[in-house]
Amino acid sequence: MIAVVDYGIGNLRSAEKALVKVGGDARLVANPQDILTAQGVVLPGVGAFGGCARALEASGLRDAVLKVIEAGTPFLGICVGYQLLYENSEEDSGIEGLGILSGRVKKLAGDVKLPQMQWNELRRVPGKESAMLDGIGASPWVYFVHSYAPDPVPHLDNVVAVCDYGEEVAAAIEKDNVWATQFHPEKSGAFGLAVLSRFVERCRA
Amino acid sequence: MRTVRVIPCLDVDEGRVKKGVQFLDLVDAGDPVELALRYDSEGADEVVFLDITASSERRSIMVDVVARAADMLFIPLTVGGGIRTLEDAKGILRAGADKVTVNTAGISRPVLISEIAGELGSQCVVVAVDARRSPWGWEVYTHGGRNPTGMDVLEWVDRAVELGAGELLVTSMDKDGTKEGFDLELTSEITSRVDIPVIASGGVGSLEHFAQGALEGGADGLLAASVFHRKEISIGEVKAYLSARGITVRPA
Known about the structure:
The complex is a heterodimer.
Chain A: E1 2-5, H1 13-21, E2 26-29, H2 32-36, E3 40-43, H3 49-58, H4 62-71, E4 75-78, H5 80-83, E5 88-89, E6 104-107, E7 116-121, E8 123-124, E9 141-146, E10 148-150, E11 159-165, E12 167-175, E13 178-181, H6 189-204
Chain B: E1 5-13, E2 16-17, H1 32-42, E3 47-51, H2 60-72, E4 77-80, H3 86-95, E5 99-102, H4 104-108, H5 111-120, E6 125-134, E7 137-142, E8 147-152, H6 153-163, E9 167-172, H7 184-191, E10 198-201, H8 207-215, E11 221-224, H9 226-229, H10 235-244
Parallel strand pairs in B: 1-3, 1-11, 3-4, 4-5, 5-6, 6-9, 9-10, 10-11
Antiparallel strand pairs in B: 1-2, 6-7, 7-8
């Protein structure tokens, strides 16, 4: 079973349904035990960093999420669920993220409209292998909705793909069992479903 | 990089698409979900469902339509029409929509925009504005373009942004249905004064109209209904044309 962490925020159904579409046994899960025993865990997130961080804490699921990440369970963070992996965010100073990755989430710079609410083309980071993205045949256009993103890319480890929006934006990271995307694979058509399919395969392995 | 979105809009009445849809090969051309999937396969960047159901008791049908769409449609879905309360918005988003549009209710009770933005994030609140030219500029209309409000469109969009709108959907009531092209003056007035994405709507009749909306209007999204439903123009053609005019689009 793949646990889609249900911590009381926005549209979680899309992520669940997209995983089901590619053959995953995905379910919205709201108790720690189901997260701890899952073969894979997905942490979605929409809205603000602080709101999501507080909701995760209030749901009582934060510790379970940290535990499965430490235990090596395949993990996928999406959008704010990706940003939460970092230490904190400029969006809501003083609220801690999960701190799995070092770095801070900052407001997108450059002369661009915020949020970035559009499709954008992924560019792979040269020399970085990616179990999540290597060899996907579909056109690498994905859907983004965000105004913030982790630190400027050159300062980050583990970035496997970027997009250009005023500046270079860290669009996807991989670190051991942790995969995460700033874009929404569940809303990115064929390419997004292929990414989720990779995740489902990994959970089975 | 700014990428312009091409967005088909489906008017849905009691769960059925009503406007002359001419996809004869669809099993059920009146099913919004099937039509949305068709547009997805043709390269639509997003789909809008606009609920035009008159009877408020029958509006819950839309939640079921959205839930069915969420099972199969994996591009962004925006749903509008009849969103009166925070609970209405939550119901639609929980069913699987990504954004809700707020129109009439946002004017009679502007705090609704803040309530939805505060609880669910600005990114899911699209403020829809129906605009008609008046001697003093553009006037905001409500109730599907029937009721004048006396409000100035430009002042209202500024207010909507302050209240927490994440996007604007601007329909020219003068151009809607005319096939004369978007109201470019209206669109560019708005895109030059707000920092959030703007979707232009109303009046598209040719490929060049789409390009004008992006180039002269500065729109981030280009919405059309009848030219797509009547198969006069395909989404693939629009994207090829925009691309040839130097506008970045996601390839169809």
